Amino acid sequence: MAETLLLTGATGYIASHTWVALHQAGYNVVGIDNLCNSNRAVVERLARITGATPNFVEGDVRDRALLDKLFAEHKISGAIHFAALKAVGESVSKPIEYYSNNLNGLLTLCAAMQSANVKQLVFSSSATVYGNPHAVPILEDFPLSATNPYGQTKLMGEQILRDLEISDESWRIGYLRYFNPVGAHESGLIGEDPGGIPNNLMPYVAQVAGGRRQKLSVYGGDYPTVDGTGVRDYIHVCDLADGHVAALKYLREQPRGMTVNLGTGRGYSVLEVVKAYERASGRPVPYEIVARRPGDIASCYADPALARELLGWRAQHDIDRMCEDSWRWQSMNPNGFAG
Amino acid sequence: MAETLLLTGATGYIASHTWVALHQAGYNVVGIDNLCNSNRAVVERLARITGATPNFVEGDVRDRALLDKLFAEHKISGAIHFAALKAVGESVSKPIEYYSNNLNGLLTLCAAMQSANVKQLVFSSSATVYGNPHAVPILEDFPLSATNPYGQTKLMGEQILRDLEISDESWRIGYLRYFNPVGAHESGLIGEDPGGIPNNLMPYVAQVAGGRRQKLSVYGGDYPTVDGTGVRDYIHVCDLADGHVAALKYLREQPRGMTVNLGTGRGYSVLEVVKAYERASGRPVPYEIVARRPGDIASCYADPALARELLGWRAQHDIDRMCEDSWRWQSMNPNGFAG
Questions:
Q1: What is the pLDDT of residue A338?
Q2: Phi-psi category of residue A196: left, alpha or beta, with phi > 0 → left and psi -120 to 50 → alpha
Q3: Does residue A95 sit at the B interface (CB-CB below 8 Å)?
Q4: C-alpha angle A64/A68/A69, rounded to 5°?
Q5: Is the peptide bond between A194 and the residue preceding it cis, with omega within 30 degrees of 0?
């Protein structure tokens, strides 16, 4: 019989792509989301992609009674905890909201899982826990730090889960440190739908290519990189989704958890992304080099060897494919799910 | 008109003594406690000490609706957040409970205060945030770390509040890092009432002197200290209480918050405490030197100069007075508040 997984923040960008991957891998999924940062239309799109009716529950992961109900109604064997607020700038202006959402969400989920004796958990961590890394590529045993409340919530989340593992060794926890997810499902039916002005590069580039924004501001052209612009490790969201499936398999088969980077191991500069997007879309992406942003670093990319070794997983899609899939999503949904 | 303060965890050990000090300093107090680790009898004792009826509300600081009600009903100008679980060993075995109580408690209080536009807060931090300090005496700018989930909750609590201050500079937050509170109010009516086997030295010594326990186990007799036993900075709980009154005055008068150690600056060894307790009680305190506990350090005491400079506060009571007041409380209440 197929295993059933609980996905929190299930209609978000990474979660929705993971939902598809889990469906394809034969899992049943129960998805919960309070829709504070995502759109109910995702559920209908998931139905079209998977050909099945998604089991979606609108609700907040901090609602303990609701979680207890879900664990009682379904034979859930594990959870992937995506639910979290994730905008760095907003986290600086609204720290209590961020800590409350991200920490209380995690704590409520863990408490409900403990009660239900469900102890397999995949945690959405982030490369942000490396703070300003002293070197690249980044290894999992690099020192951890945070430079803003969003990063703190990920760092604290990892700490809380490590203490949970110490208290009860029957837990199996996977800490997945995402690099920069981009792209979209090849169907063009789901993708990243940032509210307002995109915080991340590729959705912004997509909106410039699509004509929704005039030009891209590139923060810093004098970094010690291939062309002076910042280098990041972009990873196709479907590769990331597959990483979750691989992590769940590992947790089921091994007597321990793991902490791995999910990145490609290859960095691209802002201008390399711009050029790739122009190729993929056939549209110009005008840009302007402006001052560096305080806190930004020159170069950040993963060493993905441990994920390959432990999970047998590696990213498959290159930057051109990331841009092509992003562009298909952007063209088909110029205003995101609301359109 | 007198200011009104909200005290969370109000019937706990330090909070109840602070309640008395605040009353004497002319404040009105609204106290809230879920009584998970304290006794309702404290309220009646406070009435006897202060000659006034304490305004006590049984409830959980994580109950946002209750907090909103309290802020609506009373003209509260600030809060002292005592409510927290504090047993190091228990925090290792029940981390989710500790994180939930201590972090959600703080976050719920801050959110309610923000809504009510009440932005003066004194936070019960602890010397535990210095982890294993590299030197003594300990200064406020020493590096911070934690060695167990309880310590993590204090460290994370400080981080959350610092991010809150950055997001909104109208907050005035006092971070009080307590060393080792001991002793009791001179009336003998309130004092420390640990449930079960005491985790801390002086309550244990008190129960040995009182005949409730046979002998004291002293963990380690070969530390590089005056007599080989561990040295700590014990501070009379009434001095600590006065520190809170001084901190509130500072927050009202200064355009900024502060972080200070509340300790005496003088360390005493376990055996020095034992001897002082024997003098104060006139009873023998049998003890046995046993192996060191992993994680314990030789010596830990505060540099209290900053608190003196900023708050005009310093501890007044010496170790003999601490033991005398502890013994009076112990003799009058051999079984704590339950007796």
A1: 86
A2: left
A3: yes
A4: 115
A5: no
As given in the structure block, the two tokens for residue A135 are 């070197």
Cα Rg, chain A, nearest whole Å: 19
Report the phi/psi class of residue B317: left, alpha or beta, with left for phi > 0 and alpha for psi in -120 to 50: beta
Instruction: Give me B45's structure tokens.
Output: 């004792």
Q: Which of A92, A95, A160 is facing B160, going by the closest CB pair? A: A95
Residue in B170, B160, B174 with CA at minimum distance from that of residue B121: B174
* Helix and strand totals (H; E) in chain B: 12, 14
Which residues from B are below 8 Å from A103, CB to CB? Answer: 99, 103-104, 107
The residue whose two tokens read 């002793």 is B183
pLDDT of residue B315: 98
Residue A130 designated active-site: no
Catalytic-role residue among A27, A150, A175, A287: A150
Return the residue of A nearest to B148 by Cα.
A163
Burial tier of B26 (Cβ tally within 10 Å: 0-12, 13-18, 19+): exposed
Closest among A50, A231, A8 to A127, alpha carbons compared? A231
CA A319 and chain centroid, separation = 17
Are A163 and B149 a contacting pair at CB < 8 A? yes
User: What is the C-alpha to C-alpha distance for residues A175 and B56, in angstroms, rounded to an integer?
Assistant: 44
Query: What are the chain B neighbours of A107 within 8 Å (beta carbons)?
Result: 96, 99-100, 103-104
What is the secondary structure of A32-100 as a DSSP string? EE--SSS-THHHHHHHHHHSS--EEEE--TT-HHHHHHHHHHS-EEEEEE------HHHHHH-HHHHHI
- H-helix or E-strand spanning residue A300: strand A299-300
Cβ contacts (< 8 Å) between A110 and chain B: which residues? 96
Give the span between the Cα atoms of B109 and B276, in whole angstroms: 40
Q: How far apart are CA A45 and CA A13, in angstroms?
A: 13
What residues of chain A score a pLDDT lower than 50?
Answer: none
Sign of CA dihedral B41, B47, B50, B53: positive
Q: Report the alpha-carbon distance of residue A305 to residue B18 in Å, rounded.
A: 55
Q: Is A57 on the interface with B (CB under 8 A)?
A: no
Please name every residue paired with B134 in a beta bridge, in sequence order, or none if there are none: none
Instruction: Tell me the angle at which helices B270-281 and B201-209 cross, rounded to the nearest 10 degrees.
Output: 40
The full DSSP string for B194-210 is -SSS-SSHHHHHHHHHT
Question: What is the mean pLDDT of the segment spanning B95-114?
Answer: 98
Could you tell me the pTM of the whole model?
0.96
SS (H, E, C) A110-122: HHHHHHHCCCEEE
Query: For residue B233, how many other CB atoms are within 10 A of its CB?
Result: 26
Where does the pLDDT of residue B215 fall: very low under 50, low under 70, confident under 90, or very high at 90 and above?
A: very high
Residues of A in contact with B97 (CB under 8 A): 111
Q: Is A160 on the interface with B (CB under 8 A)?
A: yes
The Cα B82–Cα A203 span in angstroms is 45
Chain B nearest C-alpha distance from A320 (Å): 39
In the DSSP assignment, the letter for residue B293 is P
Pair of tokens at residue A210:
């699509």
* A174 to A23, A330, B280: CA distances (angstroms): 20, 32, 55
Residues A121-143: pLDDT tens digits?
999 999 999 999 999 999 999 99
- Residue B296 pLDDT: 87
